[in-house]
Amino acid sequence: VQLVESGGGLVQPGGSLRLSCAASGSISSIYAMSWYRQAPGKQRELVAQIRLPGGWTTYADSAKGRFTISGGNGKNTDLQMNDLKPEDTAVYYCNAKQLPDSSTFWGQGTQVTVSS
Fold first, then answer.
1. pLDDT band at 54; cut points 50, 70, 90
2. CA angle, 114 as apex, 110 and 116 as ends, to 5°?
3. Which among 91, 88, 52, 93 has a CA at the least distance from the CA of 71?
């Protein structure tokens, strides 16, 4: 499975960005797609996840009410980020998990910088 992210960039506080992740390869057994982020000097953390089938979603507390994950088809997922804050600055990574053994795949990451 290969994952390619796009959509990062520089945005002012209060602004919005939409990240996209496209999956290719042996994607038929993907059961969850997620967005993680890693800020300098910090551990990588889960931001949002969407599980298949059904599209059940979960969010980190810091993302609730501001971020929305969509997709749920095992081929792509988007992360709509609104009301961005400087503390959202990080490299954002797309993640996919695959049956039968929860094999995990990562994208290369996309930088999001929130600054005035």
1. confident
2. 145
3. 52
